[in-house]
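chain below, 259 aa
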Amino acid sequence: ALAYEAPPTERAAAAPASATPFERARPQRQRRGETPPEAAAPETPPEAEFKLAVMVEDSKTHKGIPDAKVWATPAAAGPPSETRRTRAANVQTDANGEATLSFGVTGEFLVEASAPGYVFSKTESVLVGPETGPPLRLILSTGASVSGRVLAKGEPGGAQGVQITVDRDSAEGGQVARAYDGKWPETDDEGRYRIAGLSPGEYGIAVQLRGTPYVAQATLPYRKVIITHADQELTGIDFNVDTAGVGWGYVPAGGERRE
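prediction:
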């Protein structure tokens, strides 16, 4: 019978008989029983070296606005990796309206700010570098406003604790929604509300009844309004809702429930 005998080169390369199927291949020049060298740890990105102090102020009172959002983006769009590296994270102002933006590189950045009840700030272009100058002042205006009452049937004081929102479908409404960031105003104990921070344009004002003791009437609590100038105060935008009914009755012994 014919038998195949591997050439010497193939026999030298074959695994030794003692090797198990589960034995992991060893790197070149690594002896059996030796611990493999540890992989190099990923390089930690350098900490931000350049900072920009920012002050966000009310245009009328000139006082600092707390909890305002401040953000910066590169003035010139670069490669995706470079854009991510140069973008500063969003920060929030403290009780005095002050905040600090941190940057990993120098260059020109566009800085903006927003806060609930205020129109977005004017975009400011700044050069970020090793030299730290005076704080950048961003001025926010309350703009135009819409106010009114939410009246509930059977409650002379009005519907309390109802949230009022602006429809975000329009361009103007979307910016207002971004500024409020979910922190919409609620009606007081007299059902009164006020939404500010509106620029000229058309808006949809809605009453949110989910989770409240109120229900909509035949007409949904939604109204369109038009702001014609920057400091307009539109009043008398009222809504009517019903008080949700409460089912009641009694169940006699051994009988069915009666209303």
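DSSP finds three helices and 15 strands in the chain. Residues 80-86, 246-251 have pLDDT under 50 and may be disordered.
thats it, cya
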